[in-house]
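Quick start: read one record
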Amino acid sequence: MAYLSDIEIAQRCKLQPIGEIAEKAGIPDEALEPYGRYKAKIDPKLLPSDRENGKLILVTAINPTPAGEGKTTTTIGLTDALRKLGKNAMAALREPSLGPVFGLKGGAAGGGYAQVVPMEDINLHFTGDFHAIGAANNLLAAMLDNHIQQGNSLGIDPKRIVWRRCVDMNDRQLRNIVDGLGGQPNGVPREDGFDITVASEIMAILCLASDITDLKQRLGRVVVGYTYAGKPVTASDLKAQGAMAALLKDALKPNLVQTLEGTPALVHGGPFANIAHGCNSVTATKLALRLADYTVTEAGFGADLGAEKFLDIKCRLAGLKPNAVVIVATVRALKYHGGVKKENLNTENLEALKRGLPNLLRHVENITSVYGLPCVVAINAFPSDTQAELALVEAECRQLGVNVALSEVWAKGGEGGIKLAQEVLRLCEQENSFRFSYELEEGIEDKLNTLARRIYHADGVQLTSKAKKQAQELTALGFDKLPVCVAKTQYSFSDDPALLGAPENFTVAVRNLKVSAGAGFLVALTGDIMTMPGLPKSPAAERIDVDENGVITGLF
Protein backbone atom coordinates (compact mmCIF):
# COMPACT_ATOMS: atom_id res chain seq x y z
CA MET A 1 0.00 0.00 0.00
CA ALA A 2 1.40 3.40 -1.00
CA TYR A 3 1.19 6.09 1.67
CA LEU A 4 0.91 9.79 0.96
CA SER A 5 3.76 11.91 2.27
CA ASP A 6 3.11 14.50 4.98
CA ILE A 7 3.27 17.36 2.50
CA GLU A 8 0.91 15.57 0.09
CA ILE A 9 -1.61 15.06 2.89
CA ALA A 10 -1.30 18.71 3.91
CA GLN A 11 -1.68 19.99 0.35
CA ARG A 12 -4.89 17.95 -0.16
CA CYS A 13 -6.50 19.48 2.91
CA LYS A 14 -9.18 22.14 2.34
CA LEU A 15 -8.22 24.85 4.79
CA GLN A 16 -10.78 27.02 6.53
CA PRO A 17 -10.33 30.82 6.36
CA ILE A 18 -8.43 32.02 9.40
CA GLY A 19 -11.38 34.20 10.43
CA GLU A 20 -13.50 31.08 10.85
CA ILE A 21 -10.80 29.44 12.97
CA ALA A 22 -10.60 32.59 15.11
CA GLU A 23 -14.37 32.58 15.59
CA LYS A 24 -14.21 28.92 16.60
CA ALA A 25 -11.55 29.83 19.19
CA GLY A 26 -13.54 32.77 20.55
CA ILE A 27 -11.14 35.39 19.19
CA PRO A 28 -12.87 38.67 18.19
CA ASP A 29 -12.12 40.32 14.84
CA GLU A 30 -10.36 43.28 16.44
CA ALA A 31 -7.73 40.97 17.95
CA LEU A 32 -7.02 39.24 14.62
CA GLU A 33 -4.18 40.41 12.34
CA PRO A 34 -4.33 38.18 9.22
CA TYR A 35 -1.15 37.16 7.37
CA GLY A 36 -2.88 35.98 4.20
CA ARG A 37 -5.89 33.65 4.20
CA TYR A 38 -4.81 30.92 6.60
CA LYS A 39 -2.60 32.39 9.32
CA ALA A 40 -2.81 35.37 11.62
CA LYS A 41 -1.26 37.16 14.56
CA ILE A 42 -3.32 37.54 17.74
CA ASP A 43 -3.13 40.61 19.98
CA PRO A 44 -3.72 39.27 23.53
CA LYS A 45 -4.48 42.77 24.83
CA LEU A 46 -7.69 42.83 22.79
CA LEU A 47 -9.09 39.63 24.28
CA PRO A 48 -11.36 39.40 27.33
CA SER A 49 -9.36 38.51 30.45
CA ASP A 50 -12.13 37.53 32.87
CA ARG A 51 -12.40 33.90 31.74
CA GLU A 52 -11.13 31.19 34.10
CA ASN A 53 -8.08 29.33 32.80
CA GLY A 54 -8.55 25.86 31.37
CA LYS A 55 -6.53 22.69 32.03
CA LEU A 56 -2.89 22.43 30.91
CA ILE A 57 -1.61 19.19 29.34
CA LEU A 58 2.10 18.70 28.64
CA VAL A 59 3.26 16.26 25.95
CA THR A 60 6.83 15.01 26.28
CA ALA A 61 8.71 11.86 25.23
CA ILE A 62 11.49 9.37 25.79
CA ASN A 63 15.02 10.23 24.60
CA PRO A 64 14.74 10.57 20.82
CA THR A 65 16.17 8.01 18.41
CA PRO A 66 16.46 7.70 14.60
CA ALA A 67 13.39 5.44 14.84
CA GLY A 68 11.18 8.42 15.62
CA GLU A 69 8.76 9.16 18.47
CA GLY A 70 6.11 11.56 17.09
CA LYS A 71 5.71 14.01 19.95
CA THR A 72 4.34 16.91 17.87
CA THR A 73 2.12 14.52 15.91
CA THR A 74 0.71 13.18 19.18
CA THR A 75 0.16 16.69 20.54
CA ILE A 76 -1.87 17.68 17.48
CA GLY A 77 -3.78 14.40 17.27
CA LEU A 78 -4.62 14.53 20.97
CA THR A 79 -6.02 18.05 20.58
CA ASP A 80 -8.16 16.91 17.64
CA ALA A 81 -9.34 13.90 19.67
CA LEU A 82 -10.40 16.13 22.57
CA ARG A 83 -12.45 18.21 20.11
CA LYS A 84 -14.08 15.02 18.80
CA LEU A 85 -15.12 14.26 22.38
CA GLY A 86 -16.86 17.63 22.48
CA LYS A 87 -14.18 19.45 24.47
CA ASN A 88 -13.02 23.00 23.79
CA ALA A 89 -9.35 22.21 23.13
CA MET A 90 -6.46 24.13 21.57
CA ALA A 91 -2.84 23.23 20.77
CA ALA A 92 0.09 25.48 21.71
CA LEU A 93 3.20 24.53 19.72
CA ARG A 94 6.66 25.80 18.85
CA GLU A 95 7.65 27.19 15.47
CA PRO A 96 10.07 25.06 13.42
CA SER A 97 13.62 26.30 12.79
CA LEU A 98 15.02 26.36 9.27
CA GLY A 99 18.11 24.55 10.59
CA PRO A 100 16.45 21.14 11.05
CA VAL A 101 14.01 21.74 8.16
CA PHE A 102 16.91 21.89 5.71
CA GLY A 103 19.16 19.62 7.77
CA LEU A 104 18.48 16.16 9.19
CA LYS A 105 15.12 16.28 10.98
CA GLY A 106 12.92 17.98 8.40
CA GLY A 107 9.80 19.91 9.38
CA ALA A 108 8.09 20.10 12.75
CA ALA A 109 4.41 20.61 11.97
CA GLY A 110 3.29 17.09 12.90
CA GLY A 111 2.86 14.17 10.53
CA GLY A 112 0.37 12.01 8.68
CA TYR A 113 -3.20 13.05 9.50
CA ALA A 114 -2.17 14.99 12.62
CA GLN A 115 -0.61 18.17 11.27
CA VAL A 116 -0.91 21.93 11.59
CA VAL A 117 -1.40 23.80 8.32
CA PRO A 118 -0.43 25.57 6.11
CA MET A 119 2.44 23.15 6.62
CA GLU A 120 4.85 24.74 4.11
CA ASP A 121 4.43 28.24 5.56
CA ILE A 122 4.83 27.06 9.15
CA ASN A 123 8.03 25.16 8.30
CA LEU A 124 9.56 27.99 6.27
CA HIS A 125 9.25 31.77 6.84
CA PHE A 126 5.82 31.65 8.53
CA THR A 127 5.07 35.16 9.89
CA GLY A 128 8.69 36.28 10.12
CA ASP A 129 9.17 35.79 13.87
CA PHE A 130 12.56 34.11 13.55
CA HIS A 131 13.79 36.80 11.18
CA ALA A 132 12.80 39.48 13.71
CA ILE A 133 14.59 37.61 16.50
CA GLY A 134 17.74 37.30 14.37
CA ALA A 135 17.58 41.00 13.47
CA ALA A 136 17.25 42.04 17.12
CA ASN A 137 20.12 39.75 18.12
CA ASN A 138 22.39 41.09 15.40
CA LEU A 139 21.43 44.73 16.00
CA LEU A 140 22.73 44.31 19.54
CA ALA A 141 25.94 42.74 18.21
CA ALA A 142 26.40 45.64 15.77
CA MET A 143 25.80 48.26 18.47
CA LEU A 144 28.26 46.48 20.77
CA ASP A 145 31.06 46.49 18.19
CA ASN A 146 30.21 50.05 17.16
CA HIS A 147 30.55 51.19 20.77
CA ILE A 148 34.07 49.75 20.91
CA GLN A 149 34.92 51.30 17.53
CA GLN A 150 33.67 54.72 18.62
CA GLY A 151 35.97 55.00 21.63
CA ASN A 152 34.73 52.31 24.07
CA SER A 153 33.66 54.67 26.85
CA LEU A 154 32.30 51.72 28.86
CA GLY A 155 35.71 50.04 28.88
CA ILE A 156 34.49 46.78 27.34
CA ASP A 157 37.19 44.12 27.16
CA PRO A 158 37.10 42.73 23.57
CA LYS A 159 38.40 39.41 24.93
CA ARG A 160 35.42 39.10 27.30
CA ILE A 161 32.58 39.69 24.85
CA VAL A 162 29.98 36.92 25.27
CA TRP A 163 27.33 38.10 22.77
CA ARG A 164 27.42 36.23 19.46
CA ARG A 165 25.67 36.83 16.18
CA CYS A 166 23.03 34.39 14.93
CA VAL A 167 21.47 32.96 11.78
CA ASP A 168 18.60 30.45 11.52
CA MET A 169 20.54 27.88 9.53
CA ASN A 170 22.82 24.94 10.28
CA ASP A 171 26.19 26.42 9.29
CA ARG A 172 29.19 24.97 11.11
CA GLN A 173 31.51 27.28 9.15
CA LEU A 174 30.28 30.20 11.28
CA ARG A 175 30.82 28.63 14.70
CA ASN A 176 34.12 30.43 15.20
CA ILE A 177 35.22 33.39 13.10
CA VAL A 178 37.48 36.45 13.22
CA ASP A 179 35.83 39.70 12.18
CA GLY A 180 36.64 43.41 12.09
CA LEU A 181 39.48 42.84 9.62
CA GLY A 182 40.54 45.34 6.96
CA GLY A 183 41.99 48.17 8.96
CA GLN A 184 40.73 50.79 11.42
CA PRO A 185 37.63 51.92 9.44
CA ASN A 186 36.26 48.35 9.46
CA GLY A 187 36.11 47.75 13.18
CA VAL A 188 38.23 46.17 15.89
CA PRO A 189 39.54 42.70 14.95
CA ARG A 190 38.39 40.04 17.41
CA GLU A 191 37.28 36.44 17.70
CA ASP A 192 33.55 36.05 17.21
CA GLY A 193 31.01 33.42 16.19
CA PHE A 194 27.42 32.59 15.30
CA ASP A 195 24.74 30.61 17.10
CA ILE A 196 21.63 29.26 15.42
CA THR A 197 18.74 31.67 16.04
CA VAL A 198 16.84 29.24 18.27
CA ALA A 199 19.83 29.27 20.66
CA SER A 200 19.83 33.07 20.92
CA GLU A 201 18.87 34.52 24.28
CA ILE A 202 16.49 36.77 22.34
CA MET A 203 14.48 33.68 21.43
CA ALA A 204 14.32 32.68 25.10
CA ILE A 205 13.33 36.20 26.11
CA LEU A 206 10.54 36.36 23.52
CA CYS A 207 9.20 33.04 24.77
CA LEU A 208 9.28 34.05 28.45
CA ALA A 209 8.17 37.70 28.22
CA SER A 210 4.63 38.50 29.39
CA ASP A 211 4.14 41.72 27.40
CA ILE A 212 6.03 44.49 25.58
CA THR A 213 7.06 46.21 28.83
CA ASP A 214 8.43 42.98 30.27
CA LEU A 215 10.11 42.26 26.93
CA LYS A 216 11.92 45.60 26.94
CA GLN A 217 13.06 45.15 30.54
CA ARG A 218 14.38 41.68 29.82
CA LEU A 219 16.21 42.89 26.70
CA GLY A 220 17.85 45.61 28.76
CA ARG A 221 19.23 43.02 31.22
CA VAL A 222 21.04 41.00 28.54
CA VAL A 223 24.75 40.71 29.40
CA VAL A 224 26.87 41.24 26.28
CA GLY A 225 30.33 41.23 27.83
CA TYR A 226 32.47 42.46 30.69
CA THR A 227 34.65 45.50 31.27
CA TYR A 228 38.37 45.35 31.95
CA ALA A 229 37.40 45.62 35.63
CA GLY A 230 35.11 42.59 35.38
CA LYS A 231 31.79 44.47 35.51
CA PRO A 232 28.94 43.12 33.33
CA VAL A 233 27.91 45.26 30.37
CA THR A 234 24.25 45.06 29.39
CA ALA A 235 22.11 45.97 26.41
CA SER A 236 20.69 48.86 28.42
CA ASP A 237 24.24 50.20 28.89
CA LEU A 238 24.40 50.32 25.08
CA LYS A 239 20.90 51.89 24.90
CA ALA A 240 19.84 49.05 22.58
CA GLN A 241 16.71 47.66 24.24
CA GLY A 242 14.24 50.15 22.71
CA ALA A 243 15.25 49.48 19.10
CA MET A 244 15.39 45.73 19.75
CA ALA A 245 11.88 45.79 21.22
CA ALA A 246 10.67 47.73 18.17
CA LEU A 247 11.95 44.92 15.92
CA LEU A 248 10.17 42.35 18.11
CA LYS A 249 6.86 44.21 18.57
CA ASP A 250 4.89 42.03 16.15
CA ALA A 251 6.90 38.86 16.76
CA LEU A 252 5.72 38.96 20.38
CA LYS A 253 2.14 38.26 19.26
CA PRO A 254 1.19 34.55 18.99
CA ASN A 255 0.36 33.02 15.59
CA LEU A 256 -2.98 31.34 14.93
CA VAL A 257 -3.26 28.42 12.47
CA GLN A 258 -5.34 25.23 12.29
CA THR A 259 -4.95 21.47 12.31
CA LEU A 260 -6.01 19.33 9.35
CA GLU A 261 -9.32 18.88 11.18
CA GLY A 262 -9.86 22.62 11.70
CA THR A 263 -8.87 22.75 15.37
CA PRO A 264 -7.38 26.13 16.41
CA ALA A 265 -3.65 26.02 17.17
CA LEU A 266 -1.23 28.66 18.42
CA VAL A 267 2.31 28.25 17.04
CA HIS A 268 4.78 30.66 18.59
CA GLY A 269 8.47 30.68 19.49
CA GLY A 270 10.89 27.83 19.03
CA PRO A 271 13.92 27.40 21.32
CA PHE A 272 15.63 24.00 21.05
CA ALA A 273 15.49 21.94 24.24
CA ASN A 274 19.03 20.58 23.92
CA ILE A 275 20.59 24.09 23.89
CA ALA A 276 17.79 26.28 25.31
CA HIS A 277 14.56 25.81 27.29
CA GLY A 278 12.59 24.11 24.49
CA CYS A 279 9.04 25.45 24.98
CA ASN A 280 6.66 27.64 23.05
CA SER A 281 5.98 31.15 24.37
CA VAL A 282 4.42 31.91 27.74
CA THR A 283 2.18 34.39 25.90
CA ALA A 284 0.79 31.68 23.60
CA THR A 285 0.32 29.16 26.40
CA LYS A 286 -1.50 31.64 28.62
CA LEU A 287 -3.59 32.83 25.69
CA ALA A 288 -4.65 29.25 24.93
CA LEU A 289 -5.50 28.69 28.60
CA ARG A 290 -7.78 31.74 28.47
CA LEU A 291 -9.48 30.62 25.26
CA ALA A 292 -9.82 26.85 25.72
CA ASP A 293 -10.89 24.42 28.42
CA TYR A 294 -7.95 22.16 27.50
CA THR A 295 -4.59 23.41 26.25
CA VAL A 296 -2.24 20.77 24.86
CA THR A 297 1.38 21.89 24.61
CA GLU A 298 4.70 20.17 23.96
CA ALA A 299 8.27 20.46 25.18
CA GLY A 300 11.26 19.56 23.05
CA PHE A 301 13.09 16.22 22.93
CA GLY A 302 12.91 13.83 25.92
CA ALA A 303 11.48 14.58 29.35
CA ASP A 304 15.00 14.95 30.77
CA LEU A 305 15.39 18.07 28.62
CA GLY A 306 12.15 19.64 27.40
CA ALA A 307 9.82 18.59 30.21
CA GLU A 308 12.41 19.37 32.88
CA LYS A 309 12.87 22.90 31.52
CA PHE A 310 9.13 23.36 30.97
CA LEU A 311 8.51 22.45 34.60
CA ASP A 312 11.57 23.90 36.35
CA ILE A 313 11.95 27.07 34.25
CA LYS A 314 8.79 27.98 32.32
CA CYS A 315 6.25 26.92 34.95
CA ARG A 316 8.33 28.48 37.73
CA LEU A 317 8.78 31.82 35.95
CA ALA A 318 5.23 32.01 34.54
CA GLY A 319 3.28 30.55 37.47
CA LEU A 320 1.89 27.63 35.44
CA LYS A 321 0.75 24.28 36.84
CA PRO A 322 0.16 21.30 34.52
CA ASN A 323 -2.82 19.05 35.10
CA ALA A 324 -1.52 16.00 33.23
CA VAL A 325 1.53 14.80 31.28
CA VAL A 326 1.69 12.55 28.22
CA ILE A 327 4.94 10.65 27.59
CA VAL A 328 5.26 9.55 23.96
CA ALA A 329 7.19 6.43 22.99
CA THR A 330 7.31 3.93 20.16
CA VAL A 331 8.07 0.23 20.34
CA ARG A 332 10.66 0.80 17.62
CA ALA A 333 12.46 3.51 19.62
CA LEU A 334 12.47 1.39 22.77
CA LYS A 335 14.03 -1.50 20.84
CA TYR A 336 16.66 0.94 19.55
CA HIS A 337 17.43 1.89 23.17
CA GLY A 338 17.70 -1.86 23.75
CA GLY A 339 20.50 -2.19 21.21
CA VAL A 340 18.68 -3.06 17.96
CA LYS A 341 20.03 -1.46 14.78
CA LYS A 342 17.67 0.77 12.82
CA GLU A 343 17.37 -1.63 9.89
CA ASN A 344 16.13 -4.42 12.21
CA LEU A 345 13.50 -2.49 14.17
CA ASN A 346 10.53 -3.91 12.25
CA THR A 347 11.18 -7.42 13.63
CA GLU A 348 9.63 -8.49 16.95
CA ASN A 349 12.30 -8.56 19.66
CA LEU A 350 10.95 -8.81 23.19
CA GLU A 351 14.39 -9.11 24.78
CA ALA A 352 15.60 -5.89 23.19
CA LEU A 353 12.35 -4.21 24.16
CA LYS A 354 12.91 -5.26 27.79
CA ARG A 355 16.42 -3.76 27.64
CA GLY A 356 15.09 -0.49 26.21
CA LEU A 357 12.05 -0.09 28.45
CA PRO A 358 14.04 1.37 31.40
CA ASN A 359 14.45 4.55 29.36
CA LEU A 360 10.67 5.02 29.26
CA LEU A 361 10.18 3.91 32.86
CA ARG A 362 12.78 6.39 34.12
CA HIS A 363 10.98 9.26 32.38
CA VAL A 364 7.68 8.07 33.83
CA GLU A 365 9.10 7.85 37.34
CA ASN A 366 10.64 11.32 37.07
CA ILE A 367 7.30 12.85 36.10
CA THR A 368 5.30 11.05 38.79
CA SER A 369 7.79 10.85 41.67
CA VAL A 370 10.01 13.90 41.24
CA TYR A 371 7.44 16.38 39.88
CA GLY A 372 4.32 14.84 41.44
CA LEU A 373 2.28 14.89 38.23
CA PRO A 374 -0.11 12.27 36.81
CA CYS A 375 0.88 10.88 33.44
CA VAL A 376 -0.09 8.47 30.69
CA VAL A 377 2.20 6.73 28.20
CA ALA A 378 1.14 7.18 24.58
CA ILE A 379 2.50 4.47 22.31
CA ASN A 380 2.68 5.98 18.84
CA ALA A 381 1.60 3.04 16.71
CA PHE A 382 3.62 1.57 13.84
CA PRO A 383 2.41 -1.27 11.57
CA SER A 384 5.35 -3.41 12.70
CA ASP A 385 4.31 -3.36 16.38
CA THR A 386 3.20 -6.78 17.62
CA GLN A 387 0.61 -7.54 20.28
CA ALA A 388 3.26 -9.17 22.46
CA GLU A 389 5.43 -6.05 22.33
CA LEU A 390 2.53 -3.74 23.13
CA ALA A 391 1.45 -5.97 26.02
CA LEU A 392 4.96 -5.90 27.48
CA VAL A 393 5.08 -2.10 27.47
CA GLU A 394 1.66 -1.89 29.09
CA ALA A 395 2.55 -4.41 31.80
CA GLU A 396 5.79 -2.62 32.74
CA CYS A 397 4.07 0.77 32.94
CA ARG A 398 1.21 -0.58 35.05
CA GLN A 399 3.76 -1.62 37.67
CA LEU A 400 4.44 2.11 38.14
CA GLY A 401 0.70 2.82 38.31
CA VAL A 402 0.63 4.44 34.86
CA ASN A 403 -1.78 3.54 32.07
CA VAL A 404 -0.79 3.08 28.42
CA ALA A 405 -2.85 4.25 25.45
CA LEU A 406 -2.21 3.23 21.87
CA SER A 407 -2.13 6.36 19.70
CA GLU A 408 -3.01 6.01 16.01
CA VAL A 409 -3.27 9.71 15.21
CA TRP A 410 -0.66 9.58 12.42
CA ALA A 411 -2.91 7.25 10.41
CA LYS A 412 -6.36 8.26 11.67
CA GLY A 413 -6.10 11.84 12.95
CA GLY A 414 -8.19 12.73 15.99
CA GLU A 415 -10.20 9.49 15.75
CA GLY A 416 -6.99 7.58 16.43
CA GLY A 417 -6.41 9.46 19.69
CA ILE A 418 -9.78 8.95 21.39
CA LYS A 419 -8.52 6.44 23.99
CA LEU A 420 -5.55 8.68 24.79
CA ALA A 421 -7.85 11.70 25.13
CA GLN A 422 -10.18 9.82 27.47
CA GLU A 423 -7.28 8.91 29.77
CA VAL A 424 -5.99 12.50 29.69
CA LEU A 425 -9.43 13.79 30.67
CA ARG A 426 -9.46 11.36 33.60
CA LEU A 427 -6.03 12.50 34.76
CA CYS A 428 -6.97 16.16 34.50
CA GLU A 429 -9.63 15.67 37.16
CA GLN A 430 -7.12 14.31 39.67
CA GLU A 431 -5.49 16.49 42.29
CA ASN A 432 -1.72 16.60 41.92
CA SER A 433 1.18 17.70 44.09
CA PHE A 434 3.27 19.50 41.46
CA ARG A 435 6.71 20.53 42.70
CA PHE A 436 10.06 21.50 41.18
CA SER A 437 13.10 19.25 41.05
CA TYR A 438 15.36 21.78 42.79
CA GLU A 439 15.02 24.99 44.79
CA LEU A 440 16.40 28.34 43.66
CA GLU A 441 18.06 28.95 47.03
CA GLU A 442 20.62 26.25 46.27
CA GLY A 443 23.98 27.36 44.88
CA ILE A 444 24.83 26.95 41.21
CA GLU A 445 26.80 23.72 41.55
CA ASP A 446 24.30 22.40 44.10
CA LYS A 447 21.40 22.99 41.69
CA LEU A 448 23.28 21.23 38.91
CA ASN A 449 24.08 18.28 41.17
CA THR A 450 20.46 18.00 42.34
CA LEU A 451 19.20 18.09 38.76
CA ALA A 452 21.77 15.56 37.56
CA ARG A 453 21.04 13.13 40.38
CA ARG A 454 17.25 13.40 40.43
CA ILE A 455 16.47 13.72 36.70
CA TYR A 456 19.45 12.20 34.85
CA HIS A 457 20.14 9.62 37.61
CA ALA A 458 23.83 10.54 37.42
CA ASP A 459 26.33 10.48 40.26
CA GLY A 460 26.51 14.26 39.94
CA VAL A 461 28.21 16.91 37.83
CA GLN A 462 31.89 17.57 37.27
CA LEU A 463 32.75 21.20 36.58
CA THR A 464 35.89 22.00 34.64
CA SER A 465 38.27 24.51 36.22
CA LYS A 466 36.92 27.13 33.80
CA ALA A 467 33.31 26.36 34.79
CA LYS A 468 34.19 26.47 38.51
CA LYS A 469 35.70 29.93 38.05
CA GLN A 470 32.62 31.04 36.10
CA ALA A 471 30.35 29.74 38.87
CA GLN A 472 32.30 31.77 41.42
CA GLU A 473 32.10 34.92 39.27
CA LEU A 474 28.37 34.49 38.60
CA THR A 475 27.75 33.97 42.32
CA ALA A 476 29.68 37.12 43.16
CA LEU A 477 27.57 39.05 40.64
CA GLY A 478 24.34 37.83 42.30
CA PHE A 479 23.18 35.45 39.57
CA ASP A 480 23.41 32.27 41.66
CA LYS A 481 19.71 32.13 42.59
CA LEU A 482 18.51 31.81 38.99
CA PRO A 483 17.20 28.50 37.60
CA VAL A 484 19.60 26.49 35.44
CA CYS A 485 19.12 25.62 31.77
CA VAL A 486 21.34 22.65 30.91
CA ALA A 487 22.55 22.33 27.31
CA LYS A 488 22.95 18.58 26.87
CA THR A 489 22.66 15.90 24.21
CA GLN A 490 19.05 14.86 23.61
CA TYR A 491 19.91 11.24 22.87
CA SER A 492 20.84 10.15 26.39
CA PHE A 493 20.14 10.85 30.03
CA SER A 494 23.90 11.43 30.22
CA ASP A 495 26.09 13.92 28.34
CA ASP A 496 27.30 11.08 26.06
CA PRO A 497 24.94 10.45 23.12
CA ALA A 498 26.16 6.85 22.87
CA LEU A 499 24.83 5.90 26.33
CA LEU A 500 21.31 4.80 25.44
CA GLY A 501 18.62 3.29 27.64
CA ALA A 502 18.90 4.20 31.32
CA PRO A 503 22.64 4.57 32.05
CA GLU A 504 24.02 4.59 35.58
CA ASN A 505 27.34 5.32 37.30
CA PHE A 506 28.23 8.40 35.25
CA THR A 507 28.90 12.08 35.85
CA VAL A 508 27.87 15.02 33.70
CA ALA A 509 30.76 17.24 32.60
CA VAL A 510 29.95 20.97 32.73
CA ARG A 511 32.51 22.85 30.64
CA ASN A 512 30.99 26.33 30.47
CA LEU A 513 28.58 28.46 32.51
CA LYS A 514 27.03 31.73 31.42
CA VAL A 515 24.15 33.93 32.47
CA SER A 516 21.13 34.72 30.31
CA ALA A 517 20.05 37.55 32.58
CA GLY A 518 17.28 38.72 30.26
CA ALA A 519 15.74 35.28 29.99
CA GLY A 520 16.25 34.80 33.71
CA PHE A 521 18.33 31.64 33.86
CA LEU A 522 21.88 30.31 33.86
CA VAL A 523 23.08 28.18 30.95
CA ALA A 524 25.34 25.17 31.62
CA LEU A 525 26.98 23.66 28.54
CA THR A 526 27.81 19.98 28.95
CA GLY A 527 29.70 17.38 26.91
CA ASP A 528 30.21 18.30 23.27
CA ILE A 529 26.93 20.21 22.83
CA MET A 530 27.14 23.03 20.28
CA THR A 531 24.95 26.10 19.83
CA MET A 532 25.43 26.05 16.05
CA PRO A 533 24.57 22.67 14.46
CA GLY A 534 26.00 21.50 11.15
CA LEU A 535 24.36 19.95 8.10
CA PRO A 536 24.48 16.15 7.63
CA LYS A 537 26.18 14.46 4.68
CA SER A 538 22.88 14.37 2.80
CA PRO A 539 20.82 17.36 4.02
CA ALA A 540 17.06 17.49 3.53
CA ALA A 541 17.61 20.66 1.48
CA GLU A 542 18.85 18.50 -1.41
CA ARG A 543 15.34 17.04 -1.80
CA ILE A 544 13.24 20.21 -1.43
CA ASP A 545 12.03 21.91 -4.60
CA VAL A 546 9.29 24.19 -5.94
CA ASP A 547 7.59 23.96 -9.35
CA GLU A 548 6.46 26.66 -11.78
CA ASN A 549 3.12 26.90 -9.94
CA GLY A 550 4.78 27.52 -6.59
CA VAL A 551 3.99 24.03 -5.25
CA ILE A 552 6.68 22.86 -2.84
CA THR A 553 7.83 19.23 -2.76
CA GLY A 554 10.26 17.26 -0.62
CA LEU A 555 9.36 19.01 2.64
CA PHE A 556 8.52 16.54 5.41
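The longest strand covers residues 507-516.
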